[in-house]
Amino acid sequence: MAFHRAWLSLLAGAALVLWWHWPAHAVDDHVIIMQADEVRYDDINGIATATGSVEFVHQGRILQADTVTYNESADLVIASGNVVLVEPTGEVLFSDYAELTGDMREGLIGQIQILLGENARLMANGGRRTDGRITEMSRAVYSPCELCEDSLNHAPFWQVKARRVVHDQLLQDLIYYDATLELFGIPIAYTPYLRHPDPSVERRSGFLTPQYGSSSVLGYNVQIPYYFNLAPNRDATFAPIVTEEEGIILMGEYRERTETGNFLFDGSVTYTDARSNTGEKAGGMEERWYLKGEGLWQHDPTWQYGFDLYRSSDDTYLSSYNFDGADTLTSDLYVEGFRGRSYASAFGYVFQGLRPDDDPGEIPVVAPLLNHNLVTNPDSDGAYFTLDTNVLALTRNDGTDSRRFSTELGWERPFLTDGGHLFTYRASLRADAYQVNHVVVGNGRPEESGFVGRIVPTTSLEWHYPLVRESGTVQQLVEPIVMAVLSPNGGNPERIPNEDSQDFEFDEINLFNTNRFPGLDRVEGGLRLNYGLRMGVFGESGGRSEFLIGQSWREKNDDTFGPQSGLDGHFSNYVGRVLVSPVSEVDLLYRFRISNEDLSFRRSEFALGLGPDDLRLNLSYVRLEDVAENVVDTTDSREQFTLNARVGFFDKWTVAADWHEDLSGGGTISYGGQLTYENECIVITGRGERRFTDDIGIDPETVILFTIQLKTLG
Known about the structure:
By secondary structure, this protein is mostly beta strands. It is built from two helices and 46 strands.
């Protein structure tokens, strides 16, 4: 009776004013907030009637209607005319007529429409509300697709029709009985029972969008992923691939986030025809697999630790099944520390070579690899010290073993004159000690082992003179740069193996480095002079254009650099770059190395990006003449071209194409295209690709993939 009196007293009180404004703290389980244009009360029959923009709020539910009648004896609320019931969960029910209990938790609703999350809708001939959480509807239709104004009488893109639908708000489930899936009003699939999360669910175990495909290796195939929501911080995906030619490939992924970090594993395994390292069938059956993982944890504000894992059963499994095109798999364990401007780390590496000529006995194990880089805080003059220490142990079953200790103490001091000249003086002293075994020294001599060391002092002076001029909203820069470096000639005893400085390339990035080698096993010695000119134009809105060109001179030739490295003479090649990006829709980068003898281009790298996201063209071109490999050896020239284009049109369609060409005689590497249609309720993607890779165990193939994702359905 207390609840009934609350209805009646509020209805009667509403007749005194047109609007009631209640503070939020006044709302509790026994209070109703009501506003209406007019309220009439029948004392004899105990019936109150509110008309005109009626709104009731109770226990988080909001009822709106043109007319609301409350019968005290029956505890019945009848709402008619533009009825809207807003649930505490945010769902909205629409109807022209509803009969509800006084607390609005149960009742009957005619011609019901429900607006769910993600703009999904449920429509039915009628519905029954039970316990404030279950809505049972008859002859219902579900769809998140919007209807165009000019086609309101037509079916949506897709919809699910069912004889009976139950929406459980507590479990956040939609349950269908005798359900039919329709595309453009045409039935394409039937199921007697269907259950899926409602659109308010962010994560739930269940099937994900399948992917259909065809390839020359696998034949026709389909991948059907199933997602496991194990806990708020853990999930897994099981995604087997059923293929026509290679049987079933089991794939999966596991992810977990802990209090201090996260880790994940993914991999696959199949039982198929046994193959040799060349990819040819060897007779019988075998397991083929790969396993990949990574993890990172934060121990405290300074230290973190982690791992990377990547292994495969054989050389061709990843490439032949199109999982990865890598030729080396790297696994490691590491600990890292960051404090101020300093860094420390401990790594251990193992590698797996996938190239046909890789010899497992010659592939090294690196453990440990220790680094410590200390940088002191600058003093009042801006000067600071550095101390870099490195410890390495590299072993092989067959071949060279190397154990290294390296430390370098450095000091740097900048000087800025009143005229704007910026000088930077650097001085360092480096000491390296090696214990090596089975070092190949060449010239037919036997392998050597033992201790070898070196001490390398280096000093340098670098000068910058930036000249800046402002013109309206544009700044113009002209900056000459000169750097003199002095260190002893040589410094690379042949008994020191080159393990970490093989991937060398002379370019504008390392033009002003005191040592251009990427690692520690090789040092650059002698008197040398590096000089260049940097120019730029910078706009207030972020646009910019830059140009840099430079060269290096050395007093004495250094045979450490190969004949095609660009550094083999007294004067180096010219290196530089051109960058043009006046607006965000235009990005142009050109990097070059030009012969100092005949001005021929020894390296050209060109990258161009044009247009916004919906009309984007990306083009890259690389030409390398007589590429320096392993510092002293050279290979033939290389020339490749890559094109990627993306066009979006009609707001929903996207066409993408890519083309990769080897212009140095290898022909087309691959080309492909993709067509995507996406609107508010569906994503349809089709991709075709032709790959011309022809290697041991890998044949050219055509790949076709197709997916259809019905949004909110799953």
